[in-house]
Amino acid sequence: MNRKSIVFFVFAIVGLLLDQLTKYWIRANLQLHVDEIPIIPNFFSLVHAENPGAAGGFLRNFEYRHYVFLGFTLVATYVIVDMWWKLPKEDWFMSSTLGLILSGAFGNAIDRVHKQTVTDFLRVYTEHASLKPWLIETIGTNEWPSFNIADSALVVGVLLFLIHYLFLEEKEKPATPDGSTSAEKPSPPGDTSAPPSADTPP
Q1: Tens digits of per-residue pLDDT, 85-130?
Q2: Pick the residue with more confidence: 58 or 14?
Q3: Is residue 52 part of a domain?
Q4: Residue 87 CA to chain centroid, in angstroms?
Q5: Active-site residue (options: 82, 111, 120, 191)
Q6: Could you write out the three-class secondary structure of the chain?
Q7: What is the dihedral of CA 68, 74, 79, 81, to 10 degrees?
Q8: Is the pLDDT of residue 69 over 90?
Q9: Higher pLDDT, 163 or 192
Q10: How far is it, in rounded angstroms, from Cα 18 to Cα 24?
Q11: pLDDT at site 29
Q12: Which is catalytic among the residues 19, 91, 111, 151?
């Protein structure tokens, strides 16, 4: 098995298992909308929330939302696998990126098929005396919508994909009208002269 296959499947499978195991533990140990385990006081804690929609509750009241999410997952899976298949055999960066995105898409899709809601449990907020009033006045809340491992994998994967596309991917040079790249400009017609070398007498 080549490097891109190993990296892709490791990230996809480990990410999916980590997502499902953490959600199972949350459902088994924390009462819905009641229990909370502080990790970093006044900033980060574990909770139990169930989201019937997408990120931030998007489409939560739409009757056919599950079909929309299923269609999105199927299309995303096809695109991801197709992109991975076309990668060079030693490309570990994009293989890990696509594996992360796939694990996130599958992690939340399993929740929706299994129980029609997605388990969220990572709560980021602030009770800081100066930040809380400012945030509530500015954006209406002092906490980020609860999320999970699958959401994190999706966000990290998409960010890595953008970094690769914007900064790491080799861009093709623009082609000239005759089909050659700008780096390979043809000599003018009839010009057979070549620049003299150091060993050529004047």
Answers
A1: 999 999 999 999 999 999 999 999 999 888 889 999 999 998 887 8
A2: 14
A3: yes
A4: 17
A5: 120
A6: CCHHHHHHHHHHHHHHHHHHHHHHHHHHHCCCCCCEEEEECCCEEEEEEEECCCHHHCCCCCCCHHHHHHHHHHHHHHHHHHHHHCCCCCCCHHHHHHHHHHHHHHHHHHHHHHHCCEEEEEEEECCCCCHHHHHHHHHCCCEEEEECHHHHHHHHHHHHHHHHHHHHCCCCCCECCCCCEHHHCCCCCCCCCCCCCCCCCC
A7: 160
A8: no
A9: 163
A10: 10
A11: 97
A12: 151
Assigned token pair, 151: 């959401």
Q: Is 35 a catalytic residue?
A: no
- Rounded Cα distance between 123 and 170, Å, is 39
Any idea how long the chain is?
202
- Whether 195 is in a domain gets the answer no
Q: What's the mean pLDDT when you consider all of the chain?
A: 83
Q: Residue 70: give the domain boundaries.
A: 3-169
Number of domains in the chain: 1
Q: Is 199 a catalytic residue?
A: no
Q: Which residues, in sequence order, are CB contacts of 148 under 8 Å at separation 6+?
A: 19, 22, 23, 107, 108, 118, 119, 120, 121, 122
| Two tokens, residue 165 | 């596309």
